[in-house]
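Please, structure for the following, as tokens.
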Amino acid sequence: MFDVIILGKGPAGIQASLYVKRAGLNVLVLAKDGGALMKTESIANYYGTGTLSGPELLNAGIQQATDLGIEIRDAEVTSISMEFDGSFLVDTMTDSLRCHAVIIATGSPRTTVKIPNLKELEGKGVSYCAVCDAFFYRKKTVAVIGQGAYALHEAQELLPLVQQVILLTHGLPVEVDFPDNVEINTAKIERILGTDHVEGVLLADRSEIKLDGVFVALGSASSFDLALKIGAQVEGNKILTDDNRQTNVPGLFAAGDCTTGTMQIAKAVGDGMVAGLSVVSYIRTKKLTTK
């Protein structure tokens, strides 16, 4: 049981972890990779650093955290849920971890899947949350669009309720092992079929698959996906927070590019500071510490 689990090891996540750790709380940082900063060639507008690359700044932050004794694990988070006692359960592909509070600092999703008629049918058979919507597809045939751990998680949520799950990889190679009762089709998707509700998909080979619903889970679960699953308010692909970086879900905070505002390192660091201090105050006020 951790006091705080932070998702993301970029500027917002690491800055938050420093404040949480220095407050004497038990904190864990989970991250699949370094996010957008790993792909940034040059940074010249961040205070006190001169000019350096994104990976250099990222590694300096990680080193600062580990020197302080903060545990950082490489892990892909597939879901966040709330337990009956108000604690959180953070699922990865290998663990289910409990904590009193969560800070989402995984950055902003930069890419979206572009399939004709997908957006038009959102809420009419197109879903981004199996935990939220699986119940509505009892004994029906649904597809999961995806190819990796996140798609596997969604398929596993659907299997106990639906009649059939079909994995559509949209031309991408399958990255993990799926249960034998999940049918896999690697063809590219040309179009989602239907007007008022999902009726199926048209594939690149001109074949059609009849479906009652489609669940989108390409790549890894984004900050938006994780927030949506637990009931946090979102706007576009951003998580909404108050001035303390707390969401509408008690104990769930968000910081950095996954929230509204300018997508800059300086802003992310400031967000991380506010979220770190706020989560410490939340845990102490609620007297939730595991110490």
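The mean pLDDT is 91. Helices lie at 11-22, 54-67, 130-133, 149-158, 223-230, 265-286.
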